[in-house]
Amino acid sequence: MKLFLRRVLSIAAKEAKHIRRDPFTLAVSLVLPLVFVGFFGFVIDLDYKHLPILVQDNDQSSYSRRLIQEASSSQYFDVTPVNSAARADRLLLQNDTKALLIIEPDYGKRLVRGEEGLPAKLQLLTDGSDNAQAAILSGYMQGLVQAAEADFLRQNPDAPGADTADLSAALRTRFLFNPELNSRWFIVPALSTIIIGFLAILLTAMTVAKEWENGSMELLLSTPASPLQIVLGKLLPYFVLTFFDVMLVFVLALLVFRIPFLGSFPLYAAACTLYITGALALGLLISVLTRQQQAAIQFGFAVGLLPSFIFSGFIFPIENMPLFFRCLTALFPQRWFLSISRSLFLSEAGFTALAGPFAAITLFAAAMILLAVKNFKTDVEP
Predict the structure, then answer these.
(1) How far is CA 6 from the centre of its chain?
(2) How confident is the model at residue 380 (pLDDT cuts 50, 70, 90)?
(3) Which of 84, 169, 339, 376 is spaced 20 to 30 A from 271 at the CA atom?
(4) Do the bridges between strand 122-126 and strand 99-103 make them parallel or antiparallel, or are there none, so unpaired?
């Protein structure tokens, strides 16, 4: 056992010297995580704000003006009043606005009377060319209207509508784990999935291929080290490097983006260890099979980057995918690690709740190491 560990550590020390002498590898491993954090954390914002919207007030009451004031003072809408339906239609057709809110006559009177079957009438016309934005805009406006009308009922307890189970006064919504629905709380905890899934695979995909091209692999094969010892020795320094990158993203998430971490850090570190090991072994497997840096890099991009975006749930919800693709995502560890990361950041999930994802990334790591060792050729022939 001591001889086994000594050989593994010797190969790891040799690989660490190669990394220190390779400025490209160091630059990729240290700069790329910061680029990812800056790009996804600061640039990408899934929250729609300052949406241009027209308001046609056909009521001209104090209640309709209060509703318009609420919309204007929110950070979601930039309100432009219009007085004529013809001008509103023209601006809509010219795509100069995202929506038109029409406040019908007698809005204030119906709100005050609160008669059943005669609710205060509003109409919202939205630009459906962007269906996602239209749905979010409609939800924002619905919430704003309900909040304004509920506020009116609280301030006027003698109003007839205050005694009815009407509008949103009977509905109180709380968003657990992300009270402000901040998209950064949704994106940043998942960045480790992208960094590991891409960076770790790309780094190790070039190692063995580079040695085959440089001819140094023949010297390594002449040593008494077994394929398993070579594989583990090559993975170890890249594991340390990738784990440092993940911890860097973790610290930035806490200190820069102010994202809470409510779960168990040892559990998070264990998940990172398993996921990093599997990703590094996959990159090494690609390198073993290709033996060419260019081909290894191409496969590394395809296998590391695309699943991290498409099949992990990072951008596209897995629940909305067809059944075949939902089953397909189960083969990719990115899906399971992302679930672990978000759960541990934003909730107090324990190991029991995360046993399934942990089992998936553990099986993946073991399978990749076995495949890399099995396919590691000890001869110099292609």
Answers:
(1) 40
(2) low
(3) 376
(4) antiparallel
Q: Say if residue 180's pLDDT is above 80.
A: no
Question: What is the C-alpha separation between 151 and 143, in angstroms, rounded?
Answer: 12
CA distances from 220 to 214, 223, 238 (A): 12, 6, 18
Q: Report helix angle 131-155 to 62-73, nearest 10.
A: 130
Question: Measuring CA to CA, which residue among 242, 237, 305, 304 is closest to residue 273?
Answer: 242
Give CA–CA dist 223/58, Å, rounded.
Answer: 87
Domains of the chain: 2-44+183-375 (no CATH), 51-170 (3.40.1710.10)
Specify whether the backbone of 50 is left (phi greater than 0), alpha (psi in -120 to 50) or beta.
left
Residue 57: HSE in the Cβ half-sphere, 13 Å Cα cutoff: 16
How much is the pTM? Answer: 0.77
Which residue type occupies 303?
V
Under 8 Å between Cβ of 77 and 71 = yes
Residues 77 and 55: their CA atoms lie apart, in Å, by 11
- Looking at the predicted structure, is the pLDDT value of residue 345 above 90? yes
What's the rounded Cα separation, in Å, for the pair 364 and 351? 18
Backbone angles phi, psi at 120, to 5 degrees: -65, 130
Retrieve residue 316's tokens: 């596209």
Each residue's pLDDT tens digit, 19-48: 888 777 788 788 888 888 877 777 777 677
Neighbours of 251 (CB within 10 A): 10
Tokens of 61: 């009451």
Residues 249 and 39: beta-carbon distance below 8 Å: no
Strands (E), the chain: 51-57, 77-82, 99-103, 122-126
| CA 146/CA 197 separation, integer angstroms | 43
State the residue for tokens 């909730």: 347
Closest by Cα among 231, 72, 27, 53 to 125:
53
- Phi and psi dihedrals of 82, rounded to 5? -130, 145
Residue 295, CA distances (Å) to 30, 145, 175, 288, 371 in order? 23, 57, 47, 11, 19
